[in-house]
UniProtKB/TrEMBL annotation:
Residue numbers binding Fe cation: C95, H138, H142
Domain of life where this protein originates: Bacteria
InterPro entries: Peptide_deformylase, Peptide_deformylase_sf
Cofactor(s) of this protein: Fe(2+)
Function: Removes the formyl group from the N-terminal Met of newly synthesized proteins. Requires at least a dipeptide for an efficient rate of reaction. N-terminal L-methionine is a prerequisite for activity but the enzyme has broad specificity at other positions.
Source organism (scientific name): Collinsella aerofaciens (strain ATCC 25986 / DSM 3979 / JCM 10188 / KCTC 3647 / NCTC 11838 / VPI 1003)
A UniProt-annotated Pfam family: Pep_deformylase
Positions annotated as active site in the UniProt record: E139
Gene Ontology MF annotations: metal ion binding; peptide deformylase activity
Name under which the protein is recorded: Peptide deformylase
Gene3D superfamilies, per database record: Peptide deformylase
């Protein structure tokens, strides 16, 4: 199932390991632009390729924009977490593929991510204790077939899935978290 160009849970594409991008082609560049547009139109701060049905390791992230004038997402190709803290902190997360709810997820409060940009430059992103830190981890999870449901304890997951089903029944759309 899809809404506003976003694949919705429990679509099996969201549970698959994504392929490494071997070459940055014009098709990859066009897909990154499409993802930026879809992310903005749905009010997201991050979007992974499987969320639009493409099973490759491509992510767009922009946690700081307020309108179209300052919207300039990072594009991460084949991102990998190379360092993370042992200290876990809770953060209320939403997901464009799981509209209508938010879940409190515990994640490391510091990460270092390496990824390639569209010019094939290796870039290091470092984030501590903020939305960018959470977003990096959340989007990389998508590339490995994990949604925020998989980060929950069993009873929390049961409750969250029920809330999500209720939200869908009410007509929740991507970008809505409550």
């Amino acid at each position: 199932m899809e809404a506003n160009g976003i694949v919705l849970s429990p679509d099996p594409r969201l549970r698959q390991e994504c392929a490494v991008i071997e070459e940055i082609t014009p098709a990859i560049e066009a897909l990154a632009e499409k993802m930026k547009k879809i992310m903005f139109e749905n009010g997201g701060c991050g979007l992974a390729a499987p969320q639009i049905g493409e099973l490759i390791q491509l992510v767009t992230i922009d946690c700081d924009y307020s309108d179209k004038n300052d919207y300039d997402p990072y594009v991460l190709i084949n991102p990998v977490i190379v360092e993370q803290s042992d200290h876990l902190v809770p953060f209320s997360e939403g997901c464009l593929s799981i509209p209508g709810i938010s879940c409190e997820i515990e994640r490391p409060d510091h990460v270092v991510v390496e990824a390639y940009d569209l010019d094939a430059n290796l870039i290091r992103y470092e984030a501590t204790g903020d939305l960018f830190c959470v977003c990096l981890q959340h989007e990389i999870d998508h590339l490995h077939g994990n949604t925020m449901f998989e980060r929950l304890k069993p009873m929390q997951r049961i409750k969250a899935v029920k809330e999500y089903q209720d939200a869908l029944a009410r007509g929740a759309r991507p970008g809505e978290t409550e």
